[in-house]
């Protein structure tokens, strides 16, 4: 944690929305104030938030969608539109690709596409431009390890915001965790102040 008396430098926060969704489900899927949470994460590390870029996918829609699919799509689309309207927020979407039917559950098997590439590109581009001295990533995906190494090689601070590292709820790749200069575990206690009522 930086000295709070000093003037805070700017930072970029990148959120892997699918990963954050997973963490929220572990805590009972509370509704979060994303704007306040983003600022609190950067403040924890001793930086100001200059921009938050949020990545996720819209729900899958089949060729002949059910009302349930339509409702889920519209609900999630409305959520992303509200996020986009937050100050200093930007939303970038990939898509879900259909990969068949799960024989055990009868539900579609879906694969998230483009998100890893989009996040990696965002990290590398920001590192190359050097418009901010620090990049914080909310994810646990080891695929981002090479991008994290580029961020550090360009002279920027790399901070990792992640879920549990122990027990059955292991959510962060060890190599990515070790690569981080700064780290923050998203516990229930940390998220509590940002839970919305209702």
Structural summary, described in words:
- With 198 residues, the chain is of the alpha/beta class.
- The protein has one domain (9-194): 5'-nuclease (Rossmann fold), CATH 3.40.50.1010.
- Helix content is 37%, strand content 27%.
- A seven-stranded mixed beta sheet has the order 4-3-2-1-5-6-7, with helices on both faces.
- Helix 4 packs parallel to helix 5 (145-153).
Number of helices: 7
What is the CATH superfamily label? 5'-nuclease
The rough form would be described as: globular
Biggest beta-sheet profile: 7 strands, mixed
List segments where confidence is low: pLDDT < 50 over at least 5 consecutive residues.
Answer: none
Order of helices and strands: EHHEHEEHEHEHEH
Whole-number tally of structural domains: 1
CA radius of gyration is 17 Å
Question: Would you report the number of β strands?
Answer: 7
CATH topology title: Rossmann fold
Secondary-structure-based class equals: alpha/beta
For the record, the CATH class is Alpha Beta
**What is the second-level CATH architecture?**
3-Layer(aba) Sandwich
What's the end-to-end separation, in Å? 33 Å
- Overall mean confidence score, pLDDT: 91
* Helix content estimate: 25-40%
Give the neighbour order of strands across the main sheet.
Answer: 4-3-2-1-5-6-7
Beta-strand content estimate: 25-35%
């Amino acid at each position: 944690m930086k000295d709070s008396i000093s003037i805070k430098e700017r930072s970029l926060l990148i959120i892997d929305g699918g990963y954050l969704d997973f963490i929220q489900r572990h805590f009972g899927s509370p509704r979060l104030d994303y704007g306040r949470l983003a600022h609190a994460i950067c403040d924890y590390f001793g930086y100001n938030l200059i921009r938050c870029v949020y990545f996720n996918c819209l729900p899958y829609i089949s060729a002949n969608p059910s009302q349930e699919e339509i409702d889920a799509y519209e609900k999630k689309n409305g959520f992303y539109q509200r996020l986009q309207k937050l100050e200093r927020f930007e939303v970038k979407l990939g898509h879900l690709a259909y990969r068949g039917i799960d024989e055990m559950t009868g539900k579609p098997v879906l694969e998230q596409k483009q998100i890893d590439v989009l996040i990696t590109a965002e990290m590398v581009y920001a590192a190359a431009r050097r418009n901010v001295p620090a990049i914080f990533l909310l994810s646990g995906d080891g695929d981002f390890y090479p991008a994290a190494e580029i961020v550090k090689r360009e002279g920027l601070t790399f901070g990792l915001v992640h879920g549990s590292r122990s027990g059955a709820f292991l959510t962060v790749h060890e190599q990515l965790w070790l690569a981080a200069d700064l780290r923050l575990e998203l516990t229930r206690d940390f998220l509590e102040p940002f839970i919305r009522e209702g």
